[in-house]
Amino acid sequence: MPLSPEQLSEIEAQRALSQPTRRAVSPGIEQHLYTAFGVLDHGFVRVIDYMGDDAAICQAARVSYGRGTKSVQNDEGLIRYLMRHWHSTPFEMCEIKLHVKLPVFVARQWIRHRTANVNEYSARYSILDREFYIPEPDHVNAQSTVNNQGRGGVLEGAEAARVLEILKADSARAYDNYEAMISQDGQAGLARELARMNLPANIYTQWYWKVDLHNLFHFLRLRADAHAQYEIRVYADQICRLVADWVPFAYRAFEDYRLGGAQLSAPALDCVRRMLRGETVDQENSGMSKGEWREFEAALGR
Amino acid sequence: MPLSPEQLSEIEAQRALSQPTRRAVSPGIEQHLYTAFGVLDHGFVRVIDYMGDDAAICQAARVSYGRGTKSVQNDEGLIRYLMRHWHSTPFEMCEIKLHVKLPVFVARQWIRHRTANVNEYSARYSILDREFYIPEPDHVNAQSTVNNQGRGGVLEGAEAARVLEILKADSARAYDNYEAMISQDGQAGLARELARMNLPANIYTQWYWKVDLHNLFHFLRLRADAHAQYEIRVYADQICRLVADWVPFAYRAFEDYRLGGAQLSAPALDCVRRMLRGETVDQENSGMSKGEWREFEAALGR
Amino acid sequence: MPLSPEQLSEIEAQRALSQPTRRAVSPGIEQHLYTAFGVLDHGFVRVIDYMGDDAAICQAARVSYGRGTKSVQNDEGLIRYLMRHWHSTPFEMCEIKLHVKLPVFVARQWIRHRTANVNEYSARYSILDREFYIPEPDHVNAQSTVNNQGRGGVLEGAEAARVLEILKADSARAYDNYEAMISQDGQAGLARELARMNLPANIYTQWYWKVDLHNLFHFLRLRADAHAQYEIRVYADQICRLVADWVPFAYRAFEDYRLGGAQLSAPALDCVRRMLRGETVDQENSGMSKGEWREFEAALGR
Amino acid sequence: MPLSPEQLSEIEAQRALSQPTRRAVSPGIEQHLYTAFGVLDHGFVRVIDYMGDDAAICQAARVSYGRGTKSVQNDEGLIRYLMRHWHSTPFEMCEIKLHVKLPVFVARQWIRHRTANVNEYSARYSILDREFYIPEPDHVNAQSTVNNQGRGGVLEGAEAARVLEILKADSARAYDNYEAMISQDGQAGLARELARMNLPANIYTQWYWKVDLHNLFHFLRLRADAHAQYEIRVYADQICRLVADWVPFAYRAFEDYRLGGAQLSAPALDCVRRMLRGETVDQENSGMSKGEWREFEAALGR
């Protein structure tokens, strides 16, 4: 993630400037504003702006004339109650704006979350940089044999080397040809909106992404999950750390009730009840399919 | 809009508190934060929080590392270009949160704008105040004879007086009975979620409403329009004044390209061309229906 | 729910007409099309149109050239897998359009679900009918003493009678005055957009409401829940019966994984694990608040 | 767009099957159901399902017990009125579901329209086909010199040939290497979710896309416009032809009031008024920037 000296100085200039405001301020996230937190080999996440804090969630829930509840302790209790009972609208009252640099194939997964605002760097208008995601050797995995949409063990030496060699060579060649096609040196130069089609999905793009806290939590629950693809999970993990500093009460409630919790089905609840009564329950008498049973045992940590 | 001394002191406490922030600050809107701007007889609009300013629109459009464009003049030019060419996403990068007190029948129109976040004061949980909208005499109008969903001239003396008398008496009686039903004095007391059904649509409710600038402009274009019902238009007009102070470049572009502009249909454009060539065009040879022609003449100020 | 003879004959005319189509057809819902299923004293739910069936969910999940999976058994297995793993987009590929008649205070809760399309009967344009919701005596409840936003036991004789008397008398008077204000007999007549403000929240309105199956399930999970207000829950219950006939596989999965299931928090999962190991766990050593513990015990049926 | 014999026979099987339904049926679109209409070299658009017709728009606008207005002529008049006055909700009551095959760089533009439902073919789960978009020679254009995000004239012989050669060779090599990496012949085989990152943006993907008519018109207004990139415009044009057969009244109103119309700004309206009064107006005394003036003259066909 090597930012140019000009980019770094623009960031520094913004970080140096502090102005008074009457709005709610979250000190935990103020310290991180504008800083580029590196993700993958060339990517990053930067907080550009935010609205609200833990107290703002309570303030909205109470449609209050002042700030949140009367005491900080009450604020946390109310936030946990709201999260537990699926009250989503108070969490929508906080908003965050991020600048993210990410490979195109990650961007394509990310954009499927529609309840957010996005401005992407335009490859119709501008020329993309020569930056491609090349995985670290310990993240070059085989196709999973149990899960059609997952990965299995890390690839061994020669095969991994071949893969990395291909990714590097094809990226370099695609970019060389991209440049050759748009060049106006001795030729007209292909339109950028056409030339971009030659670039592979591991090229980096970037965007401004703005989302409210409720929808961000939904994104994080799915993308910080163990089943998410590694390359998007590392972005979600980085965002989790930032949110924990921004709205610590809400984040802790999210960890307890969403990230670390589990949805048990009606048959699964029934099995728990039978087990607590001392019955021996196995997959065959559980009323669950093999897949469900496996997930049920995982939820119980068995 | 008589706020209680406790409410006023909560507002004053918030206004008095100023903290440093690294975020974009809009001085024009900072001065208005938390102040209750009166609308109708008991309603108000208060700005609770905001995100972004004119430069933030440019910053997002450019997916920039620093702030907006290099010069303030360029910022305005870019914003006008974006508005003119229907680029909506940069305007979505600004957000505003309002506290609004409004009659229920206005709230029912307002909520039809779905791309916003809302926390409404709960009449299941809380007891509503005795506050009802009673129109000023010069806003008590007859049913329009030309527009089925509009109003005509102001009602004359005796009829207007009867209307106002009915509205006042029915409001008072409905509220008295609401109180009588929920009272726990010598009886169990009806559940609030049931008792509220006795209250008429001119009772005031309140909510926190958060929306991005693009969707706010859409709301304002429809609700600050001459065809909107007066009682929602006065809220839209008040919000227009606040937005003009918050993002002056964007607001001016909105005035020029949306509020003050007009959508001409294909037949209407054709008529303009013919008229500019010196042809005499009237409704009969215009290809437009009578209604369209009337609207066309209005757009041309004839 | 007394429909007029003209309305009934319009409905019959639509039900009598059958035409060939190449689209997916769900026989279970075809039989119910247009029929008004009564809810509360004057309300109803009618299915106006639908798109898709169980197989269409599978067809979309597979981005298929033909219909769903090769066998009906596979269809059900795939649908259960998709529901269990929170794949929402295949369920969004089914859509239903309802005509609903409901009291205004129910409509105000309902409309908070924003991801749906709505056309409501306009009281600016038209005159509302004289129809008000008056609860059955066994649904006139006291305010709950344990839950601020709920109801407790049924009100006893004299108090219940007083409540019903008030609701009836105030509704009748409000409507009489509404009619008197808009009357053009010997006076100009108040604009309908103003007169409607005199009507209480138990008057009936009606709308066309269109929603995809994923968002409908979300609505039903919240509104067919025991904690939802009775007057909206009866609508949700009626819709559940219709959905069960429309997409039987998807509905059964919804019952097992959502309606009948429970979300256990991280501390709750930990307690289950400890209990299964034979530990005695009570609220004090559970790490849960009293409220959480009560809900946890309820989920385990203790 | 060569479909496999198995795909063609699946499509034929669906087209051959006709069942009775009580729902609204649009004969104009029934005839096209499931047929793959070719777009670009390997892409297509297929209508999978639809809900509603012209009468359904009127039915919803009137919250009707039967079908639309009493006469077909009234239906068209009402639809034109609704379109002209920006009533969006009745158009949301119609819905269409398409199966689209399209290059990834087109899909990335398309997906920015968020108010739609999408199921995309998963390259984590499945192996993509060897199909790449290679433009026809008369659509290989130079970068525009006047519009940073557009294309200029067609490239001349040798340069165009070089471009096509590069696109073909790089596509072929990228796909060969994709296959080599995922192969399980003599090696473990790279996970598909990783291998896909080697594929360029001209590879074809496919999805099910479902959208209501209001949001579809918004999409078509932007993407069937002369300023849209050619490769997405041909999809929009094809969809326009299908919509014209599905809801002919609504489509004609869309052509007149949106596609063929123009939004005039306040200064532009003022200029028209001055010109009609006989004043000579040029850019300098128009109050418009050069860009605005150019667009204004284009709207007037000068």
Distance between the termini of chain A: 41 Å
Structural class of chain A: alpha+beta
The count of helical stretches of chain A stands at 13
The unreliable regions of chain A are none
Mean of pLDDT of chain A: 95
Largest interface: A-D, 56 and 56 residues
Task: Output the CATH topology of the largest domain in chain A.
Answer: Gyrase A, domain 2
The major beta sheet of chain A can be summarized as: 5 strands, antiparallel
CATH level-1 class of the largest domain in chain A: Alpha Beta
Strands of chain A, count: 9
- In terms of quaternary structure, the protein is homotetramer
Widest sheet, order of strands of chain A: 2-3-4-8-5
Strand content of chain A: 15-25%
Total domain count of chain A: 3
Order of helices and strands of chain A: HEHEEHHEHEEEHHEHHHEHHH
Report on this structure.
The structure is a homotetramer of 302-residue chains. Chain A is α+β, with helices and mostly antiparallel strands and 302 residues long. The first copy, chain A, folds into three domains: 5-133 and 202-259, Gyrase A, domain 2, CATH 3.30.1360.170; 136-201; 266-299, no CATH class. Chain A contains 13 helices and nine strands. Chain A has helices at residues 5-16, 27-30, 54-61, 72-84, 104-110, 157-182, 192-195, 213-223, 230-246, 248-259, 266-276, 283-286, 290-299, and strands at residues 19-21, 37-39, 43-51, 95-103, 117-120, 141-143, 151-154, 204-212, 262-264. In chain A, the strands form two sheets. A five-stranded antiparallel sheet of chain A has the order 2-3-4-8-5. In chain A, strands 6-7 form a two-stranded antiparallel sheet. In chain A, a hairpin with a 3-residue loop joins strand 2 and strand 3 (43-51). The radius of gyration of chain A is 24 Å and the shape is flat. The relative contact order of chain A is 0.14. Chains in contact: A-B, A-C, A-D, B-C, B-D, C-D. At the A-D interface, helix 5, strand 6, strand 7, helix 6 and helix 7 of A face helix 5, strand 6, strand 7, helix 6 and helix 7 of D. Strand 9 (262-264) of chain A pairs antiparallel with strand 9 (262-264) of chain C, so a sheet runs across the interface.
